[in-house]
Amino acid sequence: MLRLDTRYPFEPESRLTLTKLARPGRFPIALRVPGWANGRATVTVNGAAVEPVLAKGYAIVERRWKAGDVVAISVPLDLRLESAPGDVDTVAVLRGPMVMAADLGPTEAKWEQADPAMVGADLLAAFTPTAGAAARYATRGIIRPADLNFVPFYSQYDRRSAVYFKRFSETAWKTEEAAFLTEQARLKDLAARSVDVMHLGEMQPERDHALTSEISYPVSYRGRNGRDARSGGYFEFAMKTRPGPLVVQATYWGDERARDFDILVDNVKVATQHLEADQPGKFFDVEYPLPIGLTKGKASVKIRFVPHDRSSAGPVFGVRMVAAKPGATA
Question: Which domain, by its residues, includes 43?
Answer without folding.
Answer: 2-74
